[in-house]
Automatic annotation (TrEMBL):
Protein name: Putative dehydrogenase
Every GFO/IDH/MocA-like oxidoreductase domain range: 163-240
Superkingdom in the source lineage: Bacteria
Record organism: Prauserella shujinwangii
Coiled coil (UniProt feature): none
Keywords: Oxidoreductase
Length: 297
């Protein structure tokens, strides 16, 4: 563990407790050394559980680590990520990257200027079944279209029911990045949003254009009483019709895969990755265009 990256965790919500903290503790390339939240007693409890130290301030945490993992709302993340990057700290970032495009661009520019590693936690992209599916889809080519359906009652339950930012920004900001990222990876870069509609209960329907001529659709909701959650991706074209689902309980495995890449990038000096900070900026722009069209601007 002497060569492990010292990582500070910011946040102590459900995702921080169940994914970030155990993942950073158990991975051979990282060591969870510091925790900070705006509630000192919560930070102390999480830190004690993993043999880390609770810090009194964010700056104190930054001063004693090599990297910072952020598990906070997007509006908070953008400002803290810029400060950490300017201090020369590598970053593990949640999606969406920020609350708006300008915030996302500020993070990316700070990362570029500081020459640090910054990876987005797009969990499905790191899962082995997803990687195999994308490799197969890319090799086959000739796709004319695709679809994503992510229908959930997550905001009706206890785990995320108290997440104020998810209630405010809704399904588009929370699960939209996952859906758009995979459609983009499978069909080519998203070059435009052709239509976007937000219906009752925050149900989104989006039509996307991709480089190369393919089009895709996405249906997203976090407020439908659907059990189990429906997560389905599909592409169709000359290669037929190929689908991808999500394996329940795979978040820890995906986080381990992210940390594999993260530690390797830091060690090798690599800065580009399919899920790097510029990916976060691209997805933020797609989200912003969906909102613009849905609001009729």
């Amino acid at each position: 563990m002497d060569d492990a990256l010292r990582v500070g965790l910011v946040g102590a919500g459900s995702w921080a407790r169940t994914v970030h903290a155990p993942g950073l503790t158990e991975h051979p390339g990282t060591s969870l050394t510091s925790v900070w939240t705006r509630r000192p007693e919560v930070a102390a409890a999480l830190a004690d559980e993993h043999g880390a130290r609770a810090c009194a301030t964010f700056d104190e945490l930054v001063d004693e680590v090599d990297a910072v993992a952020l598990a906070v709302p997007p509006g908070v993340q953008a400002d803290l990520a810029v400060r950490a990057a300017r201090a020369g700290r590598h970053l593990i970032l949640e999606k969406p990257l920020a609350s708006d495009v300008a915030g996302a661009e500020r993070v990316a520019e700070a990362v570029r200027d500081a020459d640090v590693v910054a990876l987005m936690l797009l969990t499905m992209r790191y899962a082995l079944p997803t990687r195999e599916w994308l490799a197969d889809v890319t090799a086959a080519g000739g796709w004319r279209g695709g679809s994503a359906r992510w229908l959930s009652g997550a905001l009706l339950g206890e785990r995320y029911g108290g997440s104020s930012w998810r209630h405010t920004e809704g399904a588009l900001a929370d699960i939209g990045p996952h859906a758009f990222d995979l459609l983009d990876a499978a069909l080519g870069e998203i070059t435009g949003v052709l239509a976007a509609h937000r219906g009752d209960g925050d149900v989104w329907h989006v039509l996307l254009a991709h480089a190369g001529g393919a089009t895709s659709t996405a249906a997203l909701s976090l407020r439908l009483p659907v059990r189990p959650t429906v997560v389905e991706f599909a592409v169709y074209g000359e290669g037929g019709y190929r689908t991808l689902g999500r394996r329940p309980g795979a978040a820890a495995e995906s986080y381990t895969a992210l940390l594999d890449d993260f530690a390797a990038m830091v060690a090798s000096g690599t800065r580009t990755h399919p899920c790097d900070v510029w990916r976060g900026v691209h997805l933020q722009r797609v989200i912003a265009e969906c909102v613009r069209l849905a609001d009729g601007q």
